[in-house]
Amino acid sequence: MTQQVTGAELLIDALKKNGLKNIYGVVGIPVTDLARMAQRSGMRYFGFRREDSAVNAAAASGFLTGKPGLALTVSAPGFLNGLVALAEATKNCMPVIMISGSSERHIIDLNRGDYEGLDQYNIAKPFCKAAYRVDRPEDMGLAVARAIRSATTGRPGGVYLDLPADTIGAILDENIDPESTIIKEDDPAKMRPAKAEVAHAVDVLKQAKKPLIILGKGASIAHAEDGVREFIETTKIPYLPMSMAKGLLPDDSEACVAAARSLSFSEADVIMLVGARLNWMLSHGNKFNPNAKLIQIDVDPDEIDSNKKIEAPLVGDMNAVFEELNPAVKKAGIKASQDWLDALKAKKDENFAKMQKRLTTPRSPMGYYGAMRPIKELIRKNPDTYVVSEGANTLDIGRNVIDIFKPRHRLDSGTWGVMGVGLGYAIGTAIETGEKVVCVEGDSAFGFDGMEIETICRLHLPITIVIFNNGGIYNGAEKNPAGSDPAPITLDAKGRYDKLSEAFGGLAYDVKTPEELDKALNEAYNSGKPAIINAVIDPALGKESGHIGNLNPKLGIKH
Ligand code: ADP
Ligand code: TZD
Ligand code: MG
């Protein structure tokens, strides 16, 4: 290539050659023209109101497609706003590349004081899987290839790509040929498990009387549903899906024992972790039968023995693991015993009956379960719909109530339990899939990124946001005994979040009963238009920290 090109053009060229088509971002100095240029070159650019939402949209894109999502930010403050979401994506193993414009090195490195000047490259490093800076335009193609590899191979995660303003605008010397690498679709550099590990895992399974599978979002990220399904259909081993693994197999599958969680944990004698870390979400394994033997499939060898001894590690890419494991368990004739399955089924039935009662018992003001029922029914009737959720009680109750029927159709607060991911995830999901999205939001959770309703309306996305408005973080009824200031957890229970949608031309509903919610939800959903439903929930409902109140330090405060 000898004609004159800028760094920006080389970047866009490399992104496009690698099949990356969408950019989520917020523009300003020094990336505005870069976004224009990308848009005019045939890429799609989606402008957000805050960078964390843009990076969340890109992370959702990575989670759904397996290709890294792309986000674009301005320097220092835009970069820092985006960095939190890059760190979250990295925690959640979602492949995403955050590209930020930055100041020129000679100003930053001598601390000479620049407009939005910050040593972004070095600051980003501890918060993402890999960080790269591009100092010469001819390296753009190489940088993009490195960023894609880092984001998608091994344990996927967030990558930071630092673009100093002078590299973006630099014109390539016409005598230099730029590097460019195209990563082939079928070239994911997949790690295979050792044969001996597979044989040992099969031996452990052979001895099991009460085996259990825990499916984690690693299986969703790996797009491993075919291998997982074959394994479960062959062995009949019951499974419990973590929240973002719901739908790998339909939640109403016979083998799903989500409704018998405590029993399955306390009784299982072999537990197989399939792309699920033994972290706080699984109580570090402390609620498992203490004599249970553990098998763990994970692409990251560091994860093995993180909290409990793993008897049989299966380190490798999940699809490669199932390619080996499935014929091996077939050959060994591994099958879960009917007694074990019957015991779990009995517990499941008992808990289903309890749940049914909660869902249908009328109460006024409306409670969480009554409000979840119409959403549950809508998703059952429309299983292609994606569900995004965040909050505390709203998140926890919704996770148990709303069944998911297809892989990767639920995105939520994830490993850190973060608020403020919902609207970004919903936008990225609607754009990448073209499907409808129902966002199930706590009123506090919605407040973190609620202004993205403007983005949703501007882009005419089919996103229905249901806000569980109980007027608080966890609960809206608390009074501050020490004075007239609202209590720390108090928000405005009378707030009309639906009006925000109206302000930007979306549909708006204020509902107080499950019947009103059902009508509004179906109308909004069927219209395919952006909508906010303000669902008024009894402010006296809602447990402190939802299902994880035990993690709060005890200070003896009465509330
Ligand atoms: P959950 O929160 O659903 O329990 P985690 O996020 O804790 O799941 O765990 C996901 C795990 O999946 C991580 O340890 C990650 O290394 C692993 N993982 C991600 N992609 C793959 C893959 N392609 N093959 C195997 N393991 C994977
Ligand atoms: N800030 C961030 C970024 N993430 C967080 N998880 C929190 C603060 C703390 N937090 C929770 O862990 S849940 C939650 C907060 C503020 C909101 C819960 O209230 P909600 O849901 O209205 O969203 P419910 O239904 O009232 O429980
Ligand atoms: Mg609330």
UniProtKB/TrEMBL annotation:
Gene Ontology MF terms: magnesium ion binding; oxalyl-CoA decarboxylase activity; thiamine pyrophosphate binding
Keyword Lyase carried by entry: yes
Names of the cofactor(s): thiamine diphosphate
Enzyme class of the recorded protein, top EC level: lyase
Originating species: Candidatus Ligilactobacillus excrementigallinarum
Top-rank taxon, per record: Bacteria
Protein EC: 4.1.1.8
Annotated Thiamine pyrophosphate enzyme N-terminal TPP-binding domain residues: 6-121
Domain Thiamine pyrophosphate enzyme central positions: 198-325
NCBIfam families cross-referenced by the UniProt entry: oxalate_oxc, PRK09259.1
SUPFAM superfamilies: DHS-like NAD/FAD-binding domain (SSF52467), Thiamin diphosphate-binding fold (THDP-binding) (SSF52518)
Designated name of the protein: Oxalyl-CoA decarboxylase
